[in-house]
Fold this sequence. Notes:
Elements: H1 3-24, E1 27-29, E2 38-42, E3 48-53, E4 62-64, H2 66-81
Antiparallel strand pairs: 1-4, 2-3
Amino acid sequence: MSLPLLAIACLLIVTLGYVVKCWLSPFGDCRKCDGMGHDFKTDRKGRTKRGKDCRRCHATGKRIRVGRWIYNRAARTYRAGIR
């Protein structure tokens, strides 16, 4: 097997794997708050306290994956075009 053919096969496997992951689980953990929905902060004594709600995920801890976002946008454009 030649090197370009092997690279194409690996890229195809990775791409199909991501497509299946976006199909089965369209939401992933928020990258900013690590899926917690909020930040941690410490008071003056060093004890951890709950911080502000995450602005990216609106305190849910979940965000839509990039691949699913692209698919949703393409499907919405296609549906709007066939009306």
